[in-house]
Amino acid sequence: MSSGQGESGGRQEGQLPASGSVVTGGGNGVVFSGESIRPAVVSLSNQRLRLNPNKEHKPDTYDDLQLDFSPSIFSSLERYLPPSMLGMPRDDKVKFMREILLKYLPHGERNRVQKHREYRQKIISSYQPLHRELYTMHPATTFVPSFLKAISDNTEESFRSIMSEPSPGVFTFEMLQPRFCELLLAEVENFEKWVNDAKFRIMRPNTMNRYGAVLDDFGLETMLDKFMEGFIRPISRVFFSEVGGSTLDSHHGFIVEYGNNRDVDLGFHVDDSEVTLNVCLGKQFSGGELFFRGTRCDKHVNTGTQSEETFDYSHVPGQAVLHRGRHRHGARATTSGHRINLLLWCRSSVFREMKKYQKDFSGWCGECQREKKERQRTSIAATKLVKSFFLLKKING
Ligand SMILES: O=C(O)CCC(=O)C(=O)O
Ligand SMILES: [Fe+2]
Fold first, then answer.
1. Where is there biased composition of kind Low complexity (predicted)?
2. Tens of pLDDT along 268-289?
3. Residue 217 phi/psi, 5° resolution?
4. C-beta of 273 in contact with ligand 1 (< 6 A)
5. Looking at 28-42, 99-113, 349-363, which range is the least confident one?
6. Closest ligand 1 atom, residue 330 Cα
7. Per-residue pLDDT reduced to its tens digit, 236-268
8. Protein residue with least CA distance to atom 1, ligand 1
9. Which comes out higher in pLDDT, residue 376 or 147?
10. How far is the CA of 329 from the centre of ligand 2 (A)?
11. Which of 135, 159, 247, 300 is the most exposed place for a label (fewest CB within 10 A)?
């Protein structure tokens, strides 16, 4: 399993111009409710996972547990359990799978997961939510009807009917109900007030942000998991399948804030995500445009921008922007007012695993595509040259 689905939340902006340093953010899963280990599981700990998933098996749901990995990772992994374990109590399966997941993490990462778990535990044990209804997914009060209809139809046509694609790979659409935006803004304000009153040192989404908050850290992780699975994955399956859009299985959910006494702008970067959702929650502001500069794989992240890849977008409250994490972007200075956005970095452990073993995984990179075209042009030109050489030879006897 990739550690990317664990708790790393840093933007991968290190190599890019005009960027800050890579940071830890928060990741997925809150706290594991550590009970004592039962012997049944200990004796099974040397059992191996199956090579192929058991597709007939219907996995348990893990949404109601406080775990240090995303609940959907447990549901996916359950299909790989040895057959003798499938009928076991859910707690036993959780312990077994958690041990496996931890085993895959290097030692330093394991410590970080542990520390982060304690950090979340501290917040959740004393923070009193303001609007409890936000903590469970209620589609009808969260999303606008046009968006819900497109999701329930679940076809490329239905998605295209509510979306614009003003630049290749950047999709914009109306998504959240104004009332939901208001409640979320009030919840974030309430959380920040608690942080100040309690003099609690919170982790920011990234070192590039001095403000903002990780929503997963104060209890919204399960709701955001449902948000991703039910409402982002179906769209990504259609538009971003080549970067794991259909297998998104974990997320990093946070708020960014700009304006007076807040962050001003955001440097040029790529996200630590396969697919990024960026929704403007409010309030009133000027400036703060997003700028996009083409999709790049690791090898080409610092290459120049072609004119057709340049795209600037002014965000509107309630509107969503959906793009590949590797689509290079940044945000210009918010020159007045207060701009607050919800960010959901969606990740696919399957895609990250496959990327490790397959070299040619970047057909979606603008520069790879250009290189490929150039190679084709050169080979066509070479073929023509050889053909005319033989023709000339034939003519000249
Ligand atoms: O400020 C914005 O809207 C962009 C935020 C962003 O790109 C990010 O947090 O990764
Ligand atoms: Fe970003």
1. 13-22
2. 999 999 999 999 998 999 999 9
3. -75, -20
4. no
5. 28-42
6. 7
7. 999 999 999 999 999 999 999 999 888 999 999
8. 331
9. 147
10. 6
11. 135
Instruction: Say if residue 57's pLDDT is above 80.
Output: yes
CA atoms of 144 and 123, how far apart (whole Å): 31
Longest dimension (CA), the chain: 94
DSSP 263: B
| Ligand 1 contact, 343 CB (< 6 A) | yes
Q: Give yes or no for residue 290 CB within 6 A of ligand 1.
A: yes
**Residue nearest ligand 1's atom 10 by CA:** 271
**Token match 């990179």: residue?**
365
Q: How far is the CA of 87 from the centre of ligand 2 (A)?
A: 42
> What number is the ipTM of this complex?
0.99
Ligand 1 pocket residue status of 341, Cβ below 6 Å: yes
Q: Map tokens 């697919």 to a residue.
A: 275
Pairing of strands 310-313, 285-287: unpaired
- Regarding the beta carbon of 187 and ligand 1, being less than 6 Å apart is answered no
Q: What are the φ/ψ torsions at residue 2 (nearest 5 degrees)?
A: -80, 145
- DSSP per-residue string spanning 97-151: HHHHHHHHS-HHHHHHHHHHHHHHHHHHHH---S-GGGGS--HHHHB-HHHHHHH
Asked whether 215 lines ligand 1 (CB < 6 A), one says no
94 C-beta closer than 6 A to ligand 1: no
Nearest CA to ligand 1 atom 4: 331
Residue 203 tokens, joined: 């982790």
pLDDT reading at 357 higher than 60 = yes
Using CA atoms, how far apart are residues 105 and 314, in angstroms rounded to an integer? Answer: 40
Read off the tokens for 88. 């076991």
Q: Check pocket membership of 170 for ligand 1, CB cut-off 6 A.
A: no
Residue 241: phi, psi to the nearest 5?
-65, -30
Which one is predicted more confidently, 12 or 343? 343
348 CA to middle of ligand 1, Å?
Answer: 20
Ligand 1 atom 2: residue of nearest CA = 331
Structure-token pair, residue 61: 């749901």
**What is the CATH number assigned to the segment(s) 3-356?**
2.60.120.620
Determine the Cα–Cα distance for residues 277 and 342; give it in Å rounded to an integer. Answer: 8
Q: Is 266 in the pocket of ligand 1 (CB under 6 A)?
A: yes
Q: In whole angstroms, give the CA distance from residue 76 to residue 93.
A: 12
CA pair distance 123, 39, nearest whole angstrom: 32
